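Quarterly update from the structural biology core.
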Amino acid sequence: MSNHRFFQVSPGGELRPKQSAEEAVRIAPGDGYAWLDFRDPSPEDLKPLVELLGIHPLSVQDCLDENHIPKIDNFGKTTFLLLNSYSHRDGVLTAGEVDFIIGANFLVTAGGRGKTAHWEDRDIETVLGLEQENLGQGPDFLLHALVNYVIDGKHNAINSLESEVDEAEESIVKDLSRFHMSRLVHLRKNILVMRKSLFHEREIFIKLCRRDSPFVGEKAIYHFRNCYDHIAKYFEEAEIYREVILSLTEMYLSMVNNQMSQIANRTNTTVRRLTFITTIFMPLTLLAGIGGMSEWSMMTGPANWKTAYPEFMLGMVVIGALTYAVLRYMDAKLKQRTRGE
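Predicted structure, tokenized:
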């Protein structure tokens, strides 16, 4: 079953469904215009429009190519526009492409390829219902209503990305150990994708507002200026969020470095204490080894052990205390020198 839809738009803005594109474009002068909406079109769907409506073959080729950036092209009898649509759900930014071909008495739209974003029937019916009074004035007003719907989708995506950036900042501050750097990289990638699209779309609306397309009338220009204002605002927000993500990256790396420095300082303190204790007991261990030999009894005489060993123990205590005092003095000098530097 085909997902394509064909309408005749009456002067009162009413949509009249038709069975085919040929039937939709058969309109008496002054009886409205045609809207041909293609979803996931094939070359066989769009190539007949070259003869039927006088659409330039390059426009058909651009509608079938998914690797184009947003742009606007004028071909005499028609104007071709390419915009990106975005949806952000569960941390995944989905990008789509919506193509518009506008002529004197028709508008052709194409999009929804694969799993990319396109408009839903219910949403579009609501949008066009609110704009019904203006739709009858010409295809440029229908173009504005559909373009405005795509722009609203960008607004929702940017708000979702903003919430995700705020959550990332809170996660870094609250629980640094569980935060992964890949989250910031993913956010930055999504922001840059949107920024690139908004940059080119801003140029599109500048060209529309200065009347580069002969199929956008003076009355509709005011509506497209409003679209330009929104795109310019979203572009500035994308720039802000890009800078915020860079700041969060620097903050994350700084906090990780501080955490590692604290761990290293604690390790150094522990090693220093162990070294301090080892230095004190090294000479005492040497003396204990000598005192435990049988030669010590021979030197002091076996009968004098009651006085020799207490004196030996007292000497070890004195040596240990002197070693401790010397080490503390050296440590104090080192701290004083470090503060002076």
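The two ends are 81 Å apart (CA to CA).
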